[in-house]
Amino acid sequence: MIKTLMFDNCGVITTGDPECGYRNIAEFLGISEDKLIPVWENLGTDLDEGLITTEDFHIKALMALGVSKDVAELRKVHLRSYYVKEDVKDLVELLKHSYGVVLLTNFGDAFDECNQNWKLDKIFGDKIFVSAKLKMRKPNEDIYKYILEKLSLNANETVFIDDNIENIQTSRNIGMSGILFESLDQLKKDLRELL
């Protein structure tokens, strides 16, 4: 019996880089998305693991791309590219009345700043787990196991919802059910079948 639904943030509850972030940032920097994405993703791993700050991330990205732009302006463009998908947020709000809900996100040290607008703590309370704070990131098993243990959850009673198949596969490898998020309608359908 499923008791807990664990959600990813970017790409599920809020927009992620592929949805509009890359486009906005590339446009601001005056480069192609093809040039931006490999640098952004490579540096993003260290940001998500809390090994570098968001400011350091932006400085390193500008240097690697050979672009001269104001770091503070890049930060604004970057962080404003993430906005809440209200329809998904509403579904999570509804589901929390019947299931435990948890947020697990690969995100840097700017999560709390962004969450001032998103207000995800109103849904998830203290069950928000940010990779940079934990110094662990998906798809590594340690972050999933940490949360299961911290919240005394059984893997076989937990569903993980993410837009990245690699993250879903890891959750399944440790005994959780997994749903690959593609759209709200598809999520509702998959949840009906699973719950």
From TrEMBL:
Stored CDD domains: HAD_sEH-N_like
GO terms assigned for molecular function: hydrolase activity
Alphabetized InterPro entries for the sequence: HAD-like_sf, HAD-SF_hydro_IA, HAD_sf, PGP-like_dom2
The keyword Repeat is annotated on this UniProt entry: no
Keyword Electron transport found: no
Pfam family, one: Hydrolase
Coiled coil spans: none
Keywords (A to Z) from UniProt: Hydrolase
Protein name as catalogued: HAD hydrolase, family IA, variant 3
Species name: candidate division CPR2 bacterium GW2011_GWC1_41_48
Lineage: Bacteria, Bacteria division CPR2
